[in-house]
Amino acid sequence: GAVVSQHPSRVICKSGTSVKIECRSLDFQATTMFWYRQFPKQSLMLMATSNEGSKATYEQGVEKDKFLINHASLTLSTLTVTSAHPEDSSFYICSARDWGQNQETQYFGPGTRLLVL
Amino acid sequence: EDQVTQSPEALRLQEGESSSLNCSYTVSGLRGLFWYRQDPGKGPEFLFTLYSAGEEKEKERLKATLTKKESFLHITAPKPEDSATYLCAVQASEYGNKLVFGAGTILRVKS
């Protein structure tokens, strides 16, 4: 299957600082990528849909000014958590949409564990 | 009301003891049903996509089936390495490109 990478895999930061997470599709081009958040023992919650060359679409309740998304190329989307606070600590996972054999599949990255102190 | 419901929440099996996981959905305009496996601290790993009722797909010890209301993930003669959380997600016309996930089933296979 297709490969999606995330960087960094883990990050610890101080409250009030900003953190950038990168999501790359390594062997395919993705016009659409998705950002999810996962709390312990819970399922994935979609935060936003990232479209190459246009503004991201945010889910209800997700602050677009706090979670900045940039999808500048067909293989890279970034999520910046601005002025992070302890309640932003979570597991952030991206996915990229791939079309193969006329079938659509979302492939997920390995996730980024964010801890805000 | 949840659109995607997975059962059971957790399942303990002995090695070699076959079983099935269930994913029921209530969305309209199903475009695809996806199964993923997630290990602790990692992102979901794609397993299958099913598009229409009656469709079946297999991969090693796993077999996924789909009806108009639910999907089953059958695990035949599981091994300890099959232990993981299995997530079901649906893509439907009412949600556009988005996947709507179930809460998952935690599977533990003991040797």
Count the helices of chain A. How many?
0
CA distance, first residue to last residue of chain A: 37 Å
Spans of chain A of at least 5 consecutive residues whose pLDDT stays below 50 are none
Task: Write the element-wise H/E pattern of chain B from the N-terminal end onward.
Answer: EEEEEEEEEEE
Low-confidence blocks of residues of chain B: none
Oligomer: heterodimer
Largest interface, Cβ cutoff 8 Å: A-B, 24 and 20 residues
Q: Radius of gyration of chain B, rounded?
A: 13 Å
Shape of chain A: globular
Helix fraction of chain B by DSSP (H/I, runs of at least 4): under 10%
Number of helices of chain B: 0
**Main β-sheet description of chain A:** 7 strands, mixed
- In total, the number of strands of chain B is 11
* Distance linking N and C termini of chain B: 38 Å
* Average residue-wise pLDDT of chain B: 94
Task: Calculate the mean pLDDT score of chain A and round it.
Answer: 93
The biggest sheet of chain B amounts to: 6 strands, mixed
Question: How large a portion of the residues of chain A is in β-strands, by DSSP E?
Answer: over 45%
Structural class of the secondary elements of chain B?
A: mainly beta
Number of strands of chain A: 11
**What would the principal axes of the Cα set say about the shape of chain B?**
globular
